[in-house]
Design brief:
Alpha-D-Glucose-1,6-Bisphosphate, Chain A, domain 4, 5 helices, 7 strands
């Protein structure tokens, strides 16, 4: 009986340690990357404000060439929704909606993941002119992991992991803008 009690206490401690630790681990994270594109701000903004264009440069769009996509509304305007559904868990099912536009400067949207897990996260693209024919594009995203799943923040650096995906997307965007919209 004493051995069973000891085993139960040890199991309880093993379960409680991560749960108590998770109370003190941050829940939120933010990712932001930028790149300079050798094009005027107006051209760059006119490209990034359309969510459909993300399929050309976003890493996530290339993960499943067979994913189903659906579009609702007028692209490049507040309320436009771009939805996706994939059999692959690393793509899942979700949608993003343009929630705000400051013409020539900023596009805000909400990313809603539906499967394999549910979450909502704000994201944005910002353009800043740094010269007559140079534009800095900043792509940002923030998220929150609910307790006790926030414990994963101790083991996975979301800023680093997602940051690499943003960097690739921005690099692809730069290549498209500077090549397809050539001099």
């Amino acid at each position: 009986m004493k051995t069973l009690k000891t085993i139960l206490i040890v199991l309880l401690i093993i379960i409680l340690i991560p749960l108590v630790t998770a109370i003190f681990v941050k829940k939120g994270y933010a990712v932001e990357r930028d790149i300079v594109i050798n094009k005027p701000k107006s051209e760059v903004f006119d490209y990034i404000k359309y969510l459909k264009n993300q399929s050309d440069y976003s890493k996530w769009s290339s993960l499943d060439p067979d994913m189903k996509t659906e579009f609702r509304g007028v692209d490049g305007t507040v309320g436009f929704v771009s939805a996706w559904e994939s059999e692959q868990d690393n793509v899942g099912k979700g949608e993003q909606e343009i929630t705000g536009i400051v013409e020539g400067q900023r596009v805000d949207y909400e990313v809603r993941f539906l499967e394999p897990f549910e979450s909502k996260s704000p994201a944005y693209l910002i353009t800043d002119s740094i010269g007559q024919d140079q534009t800095r594009v900043t792509w940002g995203f923030s998220g929150k992991m609910q307790y006790p799943f926030n414990l994963m923040n101790l083991f996975v650096n979301m800023e680093e992991a997602l940051g690499e995906d943003f960097e690739l997307g921005l690099y692809n965007m730069k290549a498209i803008m500077e090549h397809e919209y050539g001099e």
